[in-house]
What does this fold into?
Amino acid sequence: MEEQYSRSELLLGHEAMEKLRHSRVAVFGVGGVGGYAVEALARCGVGTLDLIDNDTVSISNLNRQIIALHSTVGRLKTEVAAKRVHDIDPEIKVNVHSVFFMPETADSFDFSQYDYVIDAIDTVTGKIEIIMRAQAAGVPVISAMGAGNKLDPTAFRVTDIYKTKGCPLARVMRRELKKRGVKKLTVVYSEEEPITPIQGSEDPQNGRRSVPGSVSFVPSAAGLIAAGEVIKGLIRG
It folds into this structure.
């Protein structure tokens, strides 16, 4: 294996590194959580990455998103992330999908091509569609629950959706997935009770009544944890 991954190979072994090089992972949502997941997957040498997000980098992303810099403001997050991946390893294949993933756009994606899926978007309808499509294709998926309005990065856990507690998003997802007959789903979620923001901020453009508060060290932790679970799953598989 290349010198670039020699430190990883010391822990994972040559066979595992080869598995990663021949794996394809889709990351839905390349923001605070997904951006760090992409970073970790690239630095572990995952051979093919599909990046799905229709958003552009904004000034308000600078406090927590790894792809957000003053030089990238206004650019598509997928394209910024792809360039960063190629700067890490030019041999990684990156498929860019600058679309808003919803049931209406889901047919554009063949989930059977993926070896693993990370759901790092924040719309319930889109999350459910990702999960249903991945499970129908027999592809493992890890779904990120709420990381907003949290301050404790040590409170994240990896568990089944039906064992979560204290997370408003997980509560909604449990209810909706149960309706659809989904028996299990691996999630990364925080046991920390959400903090009420000091001052609310409306964001009607994104269909939110208020924008959650967020800091640099919480969504990043969720993204790295999710990526770690994917790496372990790919190696074991």
